[in-house]
Specification:
Shape: flat
Radius of gyration: 26 Å
Structural class: alpha+beta
Helix content: 10-25%
Strand content: 15-25%
Number of strands: 7
Oligomer: single chain
Distance between the termini: 26 Å
Largest sheet: 3 strands, antiparallel
Strand order of the largest sheet: 5-6-7
Number of helices: 6
C-alpha cells in the first residue's frame, strides 16, 4: 500500500524497480500474505485508522485539537448592537494549530525550495544577450519595496506571491536585528484554501494551508504534498 500511495501517479521504471526490490525481494515478504487481498478493503482500513484511534482514546488524532466557534445570529430587534446579538456555539470542530503546520513545513525537505529572501522579477523587452544587462543606479533612492527604481523600458513581472509588491513591502518592515543573534527574520506567506466554498451549500468543509514561499508550479503537483490539512 505504501508503494501504491507514495509513488508517482504515472508509474515509471523506478517504481517498477521499487516494487521488485523493496516489496517482493524483501526478507519479510511472503506470498501467502497476498491471499484474499483486496485493495478496496485495505484502503478502508487506512481511512478508518485515525477514526478508530479517536474513538478508543476519546481524543483527536495526534497533532489535532478540538474547539468550538461562536457565531453571531440575527438580532431579534432592529437597531440592536452586534455585541448584544444572540450567539450560537458550534462545538466539536477539529483543527490543527497554524504554528504546527509552519514548523512541519519549515522542517521538511521541501523547505530547500522555499523562497525566504524575496526578490522582484523584471523583464526587458529589448534585452540583447550580446550586451550587458542594465546596471541599476547605485545613487538612486530605493523604493518602498527596498528595490532600485525600474530601469527605463523594463516591465515588472507578477507571477508569485514572494515577488509581489505587498510581500516585498512587508519584508522591508521586518526588524533589521533578530531577537537572537544569527537568526534571520522572514515572512511565512500563509494561504488558506477550501475544497467546498459554496455559499448555498451546507455541510462539512475541509480547510488546507499552503505556504506561498513555494512556487505555484510546485503547489500544482499533487505529488509535492505541499498542502497541510488545517481543519
Amino acid at each position: 500500500m505504501s508503494w501504491f500511495h507514495l509513488g508517482s501517479p504515472v508509474k515509471l521504471n523506478g517504481d517498477l524497480d521499487s516494487i521488485i526490490h523493496d516489496v517482493m525481494l524483501h526478507e519479510d515478504f511472503r506470498q501467502a500474505h497476498l491471499h484474499g487481498f483486496s485493495a478496496v478493503h485495505e484502503s478502508k482500513c487506512l481511512d478508518n485508522t485515525a477514526t478508530a484511534e479517536q474513538s478508543i482514546s476519546g481524543e483527536p488524532p495526534a497533532g489535532w485539537k478540538t474547539g468550538s466557534v461562536k457565531l453571531k445570529l440575527t438580532a431579534p430587534k432592529n437597531c440592536t448592537a452586534e455585541a448584544d446579538a444572540p450567539e450560537f456555539e458550534v462545538p466539536g470542530i477539529m483543527y490543527c494549530p497554524l504554528l504546527d503546520d509552519l514548523v512541519e513545513a519549515f522542517q521538511s525537505p521541501a523547505f530547500l525550495q522555499y523562497h525566504i529572501t524575496l526578490f522582484a522579477a523584471r523583464w526587458d523587452p529589448k534585452y540583447n544577450p550580446n550586451n550587458p544587462d542594465a546596471a541599476p543606479d547605485d545613487t538612486a533612492p530605493v523604493e518602498e519595496q527596498g528595490l532600485p527604481p525600474l530601469p527605463p523600458g523594463h516591465q515588472p513581472v507578477y507571477g508569485e506571491v514572494y515577488t509581489s509588491v505587498e510581500m516585498l513591502e512587508m519584508h522591508q518592515k521586518l526588524p533589521t536585528a533578530a531577537m537572537e543573534p544569527y537568526l534571520e527574520t522572514l515572512i511565512a506567506a500563509y494561504m488558506l484554501w477550501s475544497d467546498l466554498t459554496h455559499l448555498a451549500n451546507f455541510g462539512t468543509v475541509s480547510l488546507y494551508t499552503f505556504f506561498r514561499n513555494l512556487s505555484k508550479y510546485i503547489h500544482a503537483k499533487p505529488t509535492s504534498n505541499s498542502g497541510y490539512h488545517q481543519a
